[in-house]
Amino acid sequence: MKKEIEKYLAVPGKKVLLKDHQTSYNGDQEKEDGKEEMDEVKERLSKLQETLYAANSHSILILFQAMDAAGKDSAISHVMSGLNPQGCQVYSFKAPTSEEYEHDFLWRHYKALPERGRIGIHNRSHYENVLVCKVHPEYVLNENIPGYQDLKLIDDKFWKKRYESIRSFEQHISENGITIIKIFLNVSKEEQKSRFLDRINDPAKNWKFSSSDITERGRWDEYMKAYETAIEETSTEQAPWYIIPADKKWHARLAISQILEEHFNRLDLKFPVLAEEEAKKLDEIKELLLKE
């Protein structure tokens, strides 16, 4: 793994303290240099995507989690802009519907997994069930889980089981050909404030802002703790978490692109080679076409 990428990895089994992770880190680069490098990575990713599609043996799932205004939407837009949209599937998960509440919490996410040969991007993910629900355990009651109809029963044991379910789910899909990359955009509280004010002051961005964003901001420390625990409990070799400094959007996008390229390269995919008989047929067809 490239040294730069190692800085962002939440090492499996190691304690996670977000205060130890810089939110404004820029890799000692200037913005213009970073953008130039981003263009180069995009070009390579485009070629790697072709091999993924042609090989049709693996798929890639990228999960984005963050506090409001951390830049998830723009990161997805910029990082994926060089890829063929026919090979990408993007899902933005919101509060569960009544139908989704009639199933276990992983059901809607399993349905959204990418097919072989494709890249899946989940804007928010099954981790909402150990993040938002951890801060607001009353939401769990909507799931109507047997034995958990009372808020008092949603204790540490409950959350331990939920982390275990997530690890098992991710191990299963990993063993079946899905490369999982989990991105936490680590934005500072000060930068979030600045971006909120920008949304309020710009009429064209008003739609991005909700009064509930301020309510959740008031529980910042609770969310940070929930993120620390979730990342610590579920960063594994098969499904690693990356904590990306997000105060400088251009650097966050570059870091995500580099991580994606690294995981692509690990797959070491090749274009399929035709069987000898099929290759002979192509030669025959070529001769026919040349004689026309």
From TrEMBL:
<dbReference type="InterPro" id="IPR016898">
    <property type="entry name" value="Polyphosphate_phosphotransfera"/>
</dbReference>
<keyword id="KW-0808">Transferase</keyword>
<dbReference type="Pfam" id="PF03976">
    <property type="entry name" value="PPK2"/>
</dbReference>
<feature type="coiled-coil region">
    <location>
        <begin position="31"/>
        <end position="58"/>
    </location>
</feature>
<dbReference type="InterPro" id="IPR022488">
    <property type="entry name" value="PPK2-related"/>
</dbReference>
<keyword id="KW-0418">Kinase</keyword>
<dbReference type="InterPro" id="IPR027417">
    <property type="entry name" value="P-loop_NTPase"/>
</dbReference>
<keyword id="KW-0175">Coiled coil</keyword>
<protein>
    <submittedName>
        <fullName>Polyphosphate--nucleotide phosphotransferase</fullName>
    </submittedName>
</protein>
<dbReference type="InterPro" id="IPR022300">
    <property type="entry name" value="PPK2-rel_1"/>
</dbReference>
<feature type="domain" description="Polyphosphate kinase-2-related">
    <location>
        <begin position="30"/>
        <end position="265"/>
    </location>
</feature>
<dbReference type="GO" id="GO:0006797">
    <property type="term" value="P:polyphosphate metabolic process"/>
</dbReference>
<comment type="similarity">
    <text>Belongs to the polyphosphate kinase 2 (PPK2) family. Class I subfamily.</text>
</comment>
<dbReference type="GO" id="GO:0008976">
    <property type="term" value="F:polyphosphate kinase activity"/>
</dbReference>
